[in-house]
Amino acid sequence: MGRPIPSSSQNSLTVRDNRTGKSLEIAIEDNSIPATAFKALSAAPEKGERDENETNKGLRVSDRGFLNTAVMRSQITYIDGEAGVLRYRGYPIEELAVHSSHLETAYLLIYGSLPTSSQLEVWESEVMHHGVVHADAEQFFRSFRYDAHPMAILTSAFAYLGSYYSEANPSLQGQTLFTQGSPESLAVMDKQIYRLIGKATTLAAMAYRVRQGRSFVTPPTGFSYTGSFLYQMDHLGEENYKPNPVLEKALDVLFLLHADHELNASATTVLQTGSSLVDPYSAIAAGCASLYGPLHGGANEAVIRMLISIGSPANVPAFIEAVKKREKVLSGFGHRVYKTSDPRSFIVRKTADEVFKVTGKDELLETAMALHEAAMKDEYFIKRKLAPNVDFCSGLIYRAMGFPLDFFPVLFAVPRVVGWLAHWRQMMLQPGGVKIWRPRQIYVGASKREYVAVGERSPVEGLQKTPSQISHSGISKRTMIATFKGAKL
Ligand SMILES: CC(C)(COP(=O)(O)OP(=O)(O)OC[C@H]1O[C@@H](n2cnc3c(N)ncnc32)[C@H](O)[C@@H]1OP(=O)(O)O)[C@@H](O)C(=O)NCCC(=O)NCCS
């Protein structure tokens, strides 16, 4: 169990269990210790006695919310949250945002180095040629209601997409399909990478158009990744339609900035799901579901809803006070990793200036700036090291570009497919193979109980201990009264 202790013992940790007096020396590697080492420690109750508090099962390492648990050795993205540093494969995000493109950066994130011009040409061509979806997909998109949240559509669409590719499904082709590292296995993996990145914009554009009651648009040729995306969303039959180049470029920069952010909630979900060796389409669908929440990719949408609710700069002080009283949350501020401004937020602000030159300023900008200024000099936020994250300004750009509020998380999910795939591929090919992600719990429930016959039980009362009284529609009321005598309505 654990790593061998180095002879010098300098690079190790000594732990003493004061319950038993037992000591343990654990090797430190890459500034980390294996959590499994602690399994060697237990309170050791009397022989043969089972302890329902689990104290005889080895000491657990408890970490609600993964605050200090590393689950991967990764070479993809580096973040220094105290210094506000973000690098993809060693390249500072600021340099990539100026010199690179989303697709070039995608290659870098997935394969580890920047492509040569011929590698880039093949890569871009493969991704762009894998944009078309089967014609049957139209029926799938049309099956959603006009007011379905586009993330519900996109999440389902990725899982649906996987049903077309039985050759990419380890359940059908054998569980080592993606873990062999052989040329054949890598080729199958790369094809799914082309498909998933190529079709992400197509699925997102279809999720957009179905709600507008518009026909779908086949991905065009000769366009950039974001140019094609804008075309698929906006083309209405004009001849030689081309999206505005400033918006196309701004979206590309935003895509690049959102491409990866190491083990955030959604990337972790993709890996957790992928660790069962499920197909990559299902893993990406799971990532979408995780990203959708307001604490993660839904924050850009939440920022705009918050700014609308504040209304004007004059109301900012009252809002800040409400945040400090914990009645409100300042969306777009704070981060699990950054304890200073998110480096992406500066690039987003510059991009916003470019976009506003074309679209005009968003009316919420002044409120956003007043909020930013007030929070940055308020003791509550300073003490907690709360600063703007990438979502604080990105929503303003998306709004100025005319996207509906609930589409914002889609604009985050589409580029993040790249990062999810980079992490998924790294895990599939990691030395030692894939280990299923199966955490442990600390059981604090009832000890062993005897089953009591239904007529002999005393009622248990209390909120959370019994099902709630829910409201019913008129038809449910009538059918329940008709079919169930004891119905509580
Ligand atoms: C991102 C986020 C989920 C990180 O959460 P976390 O790492 O668990 O941080 P914590 O919730 O422990 O925050 C530490 C403290 O700052 C406070 N805090 C964190 N974010 C805050 C925010 N946006 N507004 C007000 N207070 C905030 C917490 O209440 C906590 O205060 P306390 O120590 O007095 O209890 C959190 O900052 C947040 O909810 N931000 C708003 C949503 C958002 O913008 N998400 C996008 C992230 S890219």
Automatic annotation (TrEMBL):
Positions with biased composition (Polar residues): 1-15
Keyword Transferase: yes
Key words of the record: Transferase
Region (Disordered): 1-20
Keyword Transferase carried by entry: yes
Annotated coiled-coil segments of the chain: none
Pfam families: Citrate_synt
Family matches, as InterPro entries: Citrate_synth-like_lrg_a-sub (IPR016142), Citrate_synth-like_sm_a-sub (IPR016143), Citrate_synthase (IPR002020), Citrate_synthase_AS (IPR019810), Citrate_synthase_bac-typ (IPR024176), Citrate_synthase_sf (IPR036969)
PANTHER family: CITRATE SYNTHASE
Family, similarity comment: Belongs to the citrate synthase family.
Protein name (Swiss-Prot/TrEMBL): Citrate synthase
Organism: Lentinula lateritia
